[in-house]
Amino acid sequence: MQEAMAYRVTFLISIMGGLVQVCILYYIWKVVYSGNHLINDFSFHQIVTYIFISYAIKNLYSFYTEISISSKIRDGSIAMELIKPLNYQVARFFESLGKVAVEGIIVCSLVLIIGFGIFRINLPISFSLGVAFFFSVILSIILNFIMSFLISLCAFWTTSVFGIVNSKRFIIDFFSGALVPLAFFPEWLKHIAEWLPFQALVYIPLSIYQGKVTGETIFLALLKQIIWLAVLFCVASLVWKYAARKLIINGG
Amino acid sequence: MYLLRYINLFCKIWALDIQAQIEYKFDFFIGNLATILGQVVGIVFVWIIMKRIGNLSDWNFAEVMLIYAFSAIPYGLSQLLFNGFWRLTAYVKSGDFDFFLVRPLGALFLILSDQAATHGIGTIATGIVILVKAASDLNIKCNLLNIAVFMLMIICGTIIHISINMLSSSISFWFVGVKGSVMFVVQQFRDFANYPISIYSIPLQIILTWILPFALTSFYPVAYLLGKQGYFVFVYIIPLVSLGFLGISYCIWYIGLSKYQSTGS
Asked: What is the average pLDDT score of chain A?
């Protein structure tokens, strides 16, 4: 119980830390928009909504996955879980989904209070867009889990998971569009970002939320997420198979 | 004499710690890669935004980069030299802090020399690269006065970082159970100091100048070097304020230490 409480406090602290970042972005964009009304089809109001919702989505990613899997790999307790008759990857997914469900409730209430109360963010334009956004976020949570799973497998090869997790975080922050919407990127950078899986984490759900994609293109956007999901799932399974075999050799 | 002995000891402990960490070459590499990536992402972010609007409230790109560099270097130094405060919460919680109290050198000295974060090297290196690039773009003269001001400001900045870390980690003496630290939230405020603080609201500017004085490490020194109006006087009080802040932090650390009750282990 105490352990769980301490974990909640850690979680709340990370939320507050994120809120500080949101404030910084808010002030920067405020200056950016001081002379302009509309930049790249984004109004100031839309940008504030964008950074706030992307912050909320990021909080739905359980940062617990990488830490717990990698530390189990390092101290060897992963062996106990491997003898259980479960698909390891799927079992860990549902474990972190449980965490997300609890944290999700906290995040949603926080976003409702702070976002709508103080920052006056927008709602999705229509109900159907809201539904599509909901599905898109779920896909993004699964996608993030798979990426975290892949990253934590690095613990088979290196002890410095900390550095890798941090590198991953910075790359995701940037290429997912969590810092700046991809629409603001210079053309060449935008092309790179569009060929990477990270935009499926934040930019696609938010494009749906803000009605930047409508009609049939919504299905295309969701399809893009599903394709990345399938690809990364296959990669993760392959790496896992290879890594698990390696573990058996070492652990004998 | 006494102080020299401490400095000598500190250097020895520090060198050993660094040697031990560099042995793990891949860890060393990847840790620094992460900090450099973080800096690069931050810079590209500013670049993308400033390409659209030209100036960020009277500050051009090179000037903002100079602030960025001034913010990074003292922070990197505090990571590289005195990163031990980050572990204080864990030590207090596990009861390991008792070991620090029974050793003959004083708990503060031991915490200060407890851990060197080698990824600080990445922070400092990127800071210096940005500094050189921005300073040459802005034609800042490399004369004796500017170098002296720079050195003084970097030292003051490092002192401010140490003080803030000391202050925010002392809180774990009062709240033992909390796993994540207040230090983490406080550190997030450092990012405010990467940009001209004139873009923030007045209460926020006051916080960044007087309460969590991160802006004293970056914004005010740069404003002085560039001769920006209205911020000139601050550079003279920075050494005083940083020493004063160190004193206050030390007092709070000391009060916290006397409140410390071992959790046992």
From this structure: 82
Q: What is the pLDDT of residues A135-164, one digit of tens each?
A: 999 899 889 888 888 888 877 777 677 788
DSSP string, A5-70: HHHHHHHHHHHHHHHHHHHHHHHHHHHHTTS-SEETTEEHHHHHHHHHHHHHHHHHS-THHHHHHH
Interface of B with A in 201-260 (CB under 8 A): 201, 204
Radius of gyration for the alpha carbons in chain B, expressed in angstroms and rounded: 19
CB B157 within 8 A of CB B73: yes
B109 CA to centre of own chain? 18
- Report how far residue B97's alpha carbon sits from residue B94's, in angstroms, rounded to the nearest whole number: 8
The pTM (predicted TM-score) of the whole model is 0.86
Q: Is residue B264 part of a domain?
A: no
- Using a CB-CB distance cutoff of 8 angstroms, which residues of chain A are in contact with residue B122? none
Residue B265 lies in a domain: no
**Comparing B141 with B68, which gets the higher pLDDT?**
B68
At residue A247, the pLDDT reads 65
Residue B228 pLDDT more than 60? yes
Expressed as residue numbers, the domain containing B31 is 2-259
Quote the tokens at residue A69.
């899997």
Total tally of structural domains belonging to chain B: 1
Closest-CA distance of chain B to residue A230, Å: 28
User: What is the ipTM score, two decimals?
Assistant: 0.86
- Residue B181 binned pLDDT confidence (cut-offs 50, 70, 90): low
H or E element that contains B55? none
So where are chain A's domains?
Answer: 2-251
Distance from CA of A126 to the nearest CA of B (A): 30
Do the Cβ atoms of A148 and A233 come closer than 8 Å?
no
| Distance of alpha carbon A175 from the chain centroid | 12
